[in-house]
Amino acid sequence: MYSITSESASHPDILALIAALDRYQTELYPAESNHLIDLTQLATGSLLMMVIRDYQLNAVGCGAIVLNGDGSGEMKRVYIDPTHRGQKLGEKLLAALEDEALSRHCHTLRLETGIKQHAAIQLYERCGYHVRTAFSPYAEDPLSLFMEKALVADVRLAVL
């Protein structure tokens, strides 16, 4: 059994998961194509951070959304420990993050992922994300894939 809860980006369990993600991405991409962000430096109100824990309360996955204040957000730092993959935890994590973002009046989510992360790309596609052009602050990068998902069918409904 797994649980998904909100957590501080500075929690030691989150920092350990993000360090594992950074090691993985550093092996795949050169520094200029690694768009790593230190979530602990963001204002608390602009960050949604969630952790997945197993029945022994070990942190096995995490993900975040940076809220931009304009009704959009950026999915960041999604990672599932390799020993816990294949159990639909990614789908559950994204759904929990999306629900929380929607409750904070976020109507559109965007993300950047690397082209070599095939499982991540498939996860995002299964969850309704579509390929788009680069968005600020990114520039087009042949090693990056940019995606987006509308959380509401009509953006005007998100402000009600």
From TrEMBL:
InterPro entries: Acyl_CoA_acyltransferase, Bact_Acetyltransf, GNAT_dom
Keywords attached to this entry: Acyltransferase, Transferase
Domain (N-acetyltransferase): residue spans on this chain: 4-152
Any coiled-coil regions, as ranges: none
Record keyword ATP-binding present: no
GO molecular function: acyltransferase activity, transferring groups other than amino-acyl groups
Gene3D superfamilies assigned: 3.40.630.30
UniProt superkingdom: Bacteria
Pfam families to which the protein is assigned, alphabetical: Acetyltransf_1 (PF00583)
SUPFAM superfamilies: Acyl-CoA N-acyltransferases (Nat)
Name this polypeptide is given: GNAT family N-acetyltransferase
